[in-house]
Amino acid sequence: MALGLKEATRKLLDPGSYLGWALIAIFTLVGVYFWAGKISSNYPSLLMDIMMFVGIALSLAVIMSFAGYVSFGHAVFFGLGGFSVTIVFRSATKGGILAGVTSNSVVLLVLGLLLGIALSILLAATVGAAVLRLRGAFFAIATIGMDYVILYLETLVGEGGELEFNPGYTNFLEKTYAFFLIGFILTFLIVYLVRVSKFGYGLAAIREDEDAAEILGVDTTRYKIYAFIIAAALAALWGGLFSWRTSSVGPENFSLKYSVDMIVMNVIGGLGTLAGPIIGGIIYYIVKRLTLIYVPQLAYVVMGVIVILVVSFFPEGIVGIVNRKVKKLSEYLI
Amino acid sequence: MAEEILRVVDVTKRFGGLIALDHVSFNVYKGEILGLIGPNGAGKTTMFNVITGVYKPEEGHIYYKGREITGMRPHKIARMGISRTHQIVKPFGELSVLENTMIGALFGPKHETITEEEARQIASEILEFVGLADKAELPARVLNIQEKKRLELAKALAQEPELLLLDEVLAGLNPGEVQKMIDLLERVRREKGITMIMIEHVMHAVMNLADRIVVLHFGRKIAEGTPEEIASNPEVITAYLGDPEMALKFVKKLRKGGGA
After folding, report:
1. Which of B155, B76, B70 is nearest to A219 (CA)?
2. Which residue does chain B place closest to A208, by CA atoms?
3. The model's pTM
4. Theoretical Cys-Cys bridge with B147: which of A94, B93, B143, B259, CB 3.0 to 4.6 Å?
5. Greatest CA span in chain A, whole angstroms?
6. A209/B91 Cβ within 8 A
7. Selecting from 3.30.750.24, 2.40.10.220, 2.120.10.80, 3.40.50.300, what CATH number does the domain B4-81+162-255 have?
8. What pLDDT digit, counting tens, does each position of B2-54 carry?
9. How many domains does chain A have?
């Protein structure tokens, strides 16, 4: 599954990567103006939302869209990331185990992110070994169990309330934008390389016919667990960044609703592709934002209708339709 | 006799109370085509599933090139050089015909060293070989049954196997297509020198292609020999009489001169 450095570098210049690079260019450009103090935080805030939505959609895509295993438990990893960052920051205040060790918020954030990623990898590996034996709806239902079990952490958070922390507010938004941008670049690079590597071919084979894949030499058990672990680690990264941004973690971070949102982004965008979660994430965000502004009571109704329409009439999602209608674009929307 | 490539020793496979394979033993020699025949439910596909690691036998052993492979995971066995096609075709529907074939090459015996470019090259050559080159960019799901059968063969061949298991590659094809597929299998033998075990109900094909034949009936091996020997074996004919249509075909072939 290893992708040589030379091959990886070459792949990063393939047309399939252009969409991601274009977004990174836009995000970076806006960032440069923002860090130079030339624009207000309005656009950067909006772009951070988009980075996160696309980031979590991409993370889920590795297991759901590439390997065909629809996980309803993805918010568990997102929540675990947020929980870890929160715990690290709180333990650095007086009386905590990190008190006096460091109060540098960047160091604490990185520690928190690493903790969240490590816990998520551990959870994904153990739970994955069990539930990835299941197929289709049975796998999906088993992952709902993860959502329930993790609610235990809520008892630590306390009475449905939020656990807050102080990230240190000097240049907070500027720093946050930089972290989000780094997170986005990392996520895109990892998911893109999964998509175009031999590993990605193996996952696609698993998605299309797992038994045939195994017979053809794909180590399906190992590939599925690797995919689950990568997806979990990236979700934890975004959960951690999100908690940093809101300086808190709450039960909602772990909720089944978040898991479903991530699935919806992938479905709208188009399954089996890299462009799907990117475009799906952006469209999901735009629709949600606009409906919340103009028809707040109907926000979920609109989203629901969109999901029903897409699944009923365009099951291949937006990217699928575009690629079918405009053949030339399929080189870019891989 | 030539070098032995596969040895099946006393293999028994049960499903609950049903004995699908009952102490079956046979050898396969390098370069030959071994026909595996028998009425429906005889255990032929089960035998393939045991050889490729899909099922673990309750008893017995399977040796490939002298090494025991009994109970190994299917992907490991594939990587050692045993490939198969499925009776019910298993294309990766949304992937292109080329990608389907590339996956065969990428995960076969050369999986550790092969690059994507090499896999693409091998896949293109194989698609040319099986006559699907003009469909390379189409999603596999749009192929017709005959083309899907060819794709099964292409995926298996792209692995560059030493032993190829063919599970009814002729089933569901019309007479013209059957002849084309037989020609293709002849070419696989002639040009690639791959050892094959073929499960087949189309008798004249097995009789023409196979060097030797093993007959299974209710999970037991009832005969083994050259096509001529099998065609005149009374036990085999009796077994097929349980399946009147098949028996009729069989007897017809006999009258035509043993199919040899």
Report:
1. B76
2. B92
3. 0.90
4. B143
5. 62
6. yes
7. 3.40.50.300
8. 799 999 999 999 998 899 999 999 999 999 999 999 988 899 999 999 999 99
9. 1
